[in-house]
Amino acid sequence: MTFAVDMGLDPAGRPIAIDLEELLATRLLVQGNSGSGKSHLLRRLLERSAGQVQQIIVDPEGDFVTLSDAYGHVAIEAVEYSLPEIAKFAARAREHRTSIVLSLEGLEMEGQMRCATAFLMGLFDAPREHWFPALVVVDEAQIFAPSGGAEVAEEVRRTTLSAMANLMSRGRKRGLAGIIATQRLAKLSKNVAAEASNFLMGRTFLDIDMARAADLLGMERRQAESIRDLQRGTFLGLGPAIARRPVTVKIGAVDTSARSSSPKLVPLPTQPVANGEQWLLDGLIAPLPPAPPPPPPPLPVDAVLREMAPVPPTEFEFPAPDAPDPDVVVSDALRAIVEDPESATRPAAVLHQDFAVRCRMAGIRRAPLDPTAFARRLAAARAGIFGKLEGEWAEAMAAAQGLPDDMIGAFLLIARAAREGEAAPSDEAIARTYGTSSLGRARRMIGYMETRDIIVTRIDLSGRRSITIPRLGWSTASAEA
């Protein structure tokens, strides 16, 4: 079974088509400077082959998410998910043969490369029974397969380049047909570009790019100048899925459009320029504060003397003091101890003596808490919980069963943020509650809680962390770790 994808017309008005079955076996490289119509070409190919083959699109700019409304593609905004979740999306897409658009918009370059690597490896590692044919379109491929060093970590560059090389060289056996598009051939890895057997070359102006395009098309160097003269939306095509000799094709119309488009000239506003300064500065210059009210007139001398006259003492009987509330005294004492900056480095046994003295000063002769109970209440106080550990806090303490006493405070700090829906505590706050200045110890403690299934941490692609306490069903909001 084969299917001809109508791409447009040649200069003589004859239709030019791509053999879809041949394309699945031989792969495609699209090249063109910005504004040459490269994205338009990819959109034409995707629209005309939709419904015939699964389509998987890695979209750095989020231009192809509009395919979801017209053709049923599932659009995924990668910035909202973690790398393991992105890999799962890829595996499920292969299993269910779902067309998908992975939008990397909103991520920095390194984040885009890490996300694309996880996604491509998820496609590549699918089990054999899910090796169905699929077009894998990677736009702006020079980002993911650079020819030289990129402004990212070397480990990130190498793993992303390896994933792209796997797609183009070994993906055919797994049913994955790579379609890569780039603005600059000179910036694209030669090992990745060389795996394509079909080419669509659009307008380009730099000599080095024209020379590489001419080599791929089998043209002589003096013929490379014709690539510079191509109109927007016109490409030179060559390959077993297109034609055995180079052909010129004017790409046809498309049904959908990108969320962004090329800039167009629009009329400038017609308001007089004289008001420009008022528009720009309106609301930015703070008004002068109102003048202070005039001072009151001075009092007469006799009124001042009367106010200065001594008041005769009156007999007053002081009431007997009420017995102090132990719960209030304990809460106040814990609050005062926690607010003392020196208490963070003092052991609980020493602080218990300070606690007992504060209780006696408040009118309670014997400390209401023994050293063990005091250590737990102190841990809770460092987490911002000064009352009794009752109700939901008793459930939280039960969820922390099995943790060492010195970790209780850090756990309760996380639990309080999760219960109130606040952002996850930072590593600095957790370390401070733990009684240390080492961020490494704080992270190891979080890892220890995870191994005991007491908490579950999740880090999304923007590096923001949220923490869930499964037993309680509480989760914090995302925040920088």
From TrEMBL:
Helicase HerA central domain ranges (all copies): 14-72
Entry-linked InterPro entries: ATPase_Atu1862_pred, HerA-like, HerA_central, P-loop_NTPase
Protein name as annotated: DUF87 domain-containing protein
Short name of any one Pfam family annotated for the protein: DUF87
